[in-house]
Amino acid sequence: MKIVGFRELKPATDPNALLDLEAPDPVASGHDILVRVKAVSVNPVDTKVRSRAQPAEGEVRVLGFDAAGVVEAVGEAVTLFAPGDEVFYAGAIGRQGSNAELQLVDERIVGKKPKSLDFAQAAAMPLTFITAWELLFDRFGVQRDGGEGQTLVIIGGAGGVGSALIQLARKLTRLHVVASASRDETRQWVQELGAHQVFDHGKSLADELKRLGLTAPAYIACLTHSAQHFPQVSEAIALQGKIGIIEADGDLNIRPLQQKAASIHWEYMFARPQGTPDMIEQHKLLTQVADLVDQGVLRTTLTQVVGKIRAADLLEAHRIVESARTIGKVALEGF
C-alpha cells in the first residue's frame, strides 16, 4: 500500500520532510477494523509530531489523525462495523496514522460517516468535534439543553476546535456563546457558525467583555496561545467558573484561581483511545455528530481541499496549518 511518512525531523519547507513510500498491507484482528482511506484532514497535532517526535532508527512514522473511508475487513472481536461501511474517525496518537491507503483503527473510536457528506467533508470533522464535545459535555459538565443564563467564551473561535465548539454550544445548549476573531473573514465565519457575539482576542479580554456588556463568564475555552491569554482568563472567569485548555504553550500560574474556586479542565481527545474504560464514548459521540449533520443541525467545517494524499500536498497542508491563520479545516482526498 502507499503511505506518506517521515524518518527525520524536518521543517515543512523542506521537500523531504514527508516522503511517499510503500508498506505491506496491515491485517485486522481483535477490535480493529481495516479502513481504506478516502480522505484525511490535517490538524496542528500533525505538524507538532512531524517536527518533534523522532522515529526510532530505521522506522517510518505515518501521520494522520482524521480520516474518512470504507471498511475493508474487520477483526474477530468487531461487532460495530462490517466491510463496506463508510466511517470517519480521529485515530490514536500511538499508532500509525491515516496518511496511508489502508489503516487499522479500533472500532470503539470510529463512527459511521454522515450520509449527507462526501469523504473530504467528513474527514474534516472527527478530531475537532470529539475535542469540542468532550470539553463541553464531559469536562465542563454542561447538560444538553442546559446552560440557560450562562456565558461560554471561546478564545480561538475560527480554528478547527473553535468552529466545532461554537456549533455544539449554540445548537445543543442554551449557553450564550461568545467567540473571538481578529479579522473580518474570521468574524464573519464565527457569526455564520452561530456565535451570539464576537470579540477580538488581540485586545484586553476585560475591555472586550465590558464592551459587549458581559459579566464574568461561567466558562472560558482557551483554545490557542493559552499561556499568553491565561492571566486575563484567570481575571475574567466567574466565581466557581471553569476554564478549558487543549494545549499550553508555556507555564500556567493557577494560583489566582484559588480565591475564586475556579477550575482548569484539560481536554485531550487522545486519552480515551489509549484504552480508558469509557473508550467507546468516542464511537457514541461520533454517531451522534453524524446524525446531527444528516439532520442539518451541524455542518462540516471544511474550507479547503488542498490536493491528494501524497507528500507534496500534505506538506502544503502542514504549511497552511502552521501559519495559524486557517479558518475551519483543510483536507486532502484520494491517492
Summary?
This protein has 335 residues and is of the alpha/beta class. The chain has helices spanning 44-52, 119-123, 126-139, 160-172, 184-193, 205-211, 226-236, 281-294, 311-322; strands at 2-6, 19-22, 32-42, 61-62, 67-74, 86-89, 102-106, 110-112, 151-155, 176-180, 197-199, 219-222, 242-245, 263-266, 302-307, 329-333. Helix 3 packs across helix 4 and helix 3 crosses helix 8.
* Strand content range: 15-25%
* Poorly predicted regions: none
Assign an overall shape: globular
The ordered string of helix (H) and strand (E) elements is EEEHEEEEEHHEHEHEHEHEEHEHE
**Would you identify the CATH architecture of the largest domain?**
Alpha-Beta Complex
Give the helix proportion (percent range).
Answer: 25-40%
| Main sheet overview | 7 strands, mixed
Q: What fold name goes in the CATH topology slot of the largest domain?
A: Quinone Oxidoreductase, Chain A, domain 1
Classified by CATH, the class of the largest domain is Alpha Beta
* Terminal-residue CA separation: 11 Å
> Would you tell me the structural class of the helices and strands?
alpha/beta
Number of domains: 2
The average pLDDT is 96
- The name of the CATH superfamily of the largest domain reads Medium-chain alcohol dehydrogenases, catalytic domain
* Radius of gyration over all CA atoms, rounded: 20 Å
Number of strands: 16
**Contiguous helical run count:** 9
Domain Enoyl reductase (ER): 12-332
Keywords: Metal-binding, NADP, Oxidoreductase, Zinc
InterPro entries: ADH-like_N, ADH_Zn_typ-1, ER, GroES-like_sf, NAD(P)-bd_dom_sf, Zinc-ADH_QOR/CCCR
Pfam families: ADH_N, ADH_zinc_N_2
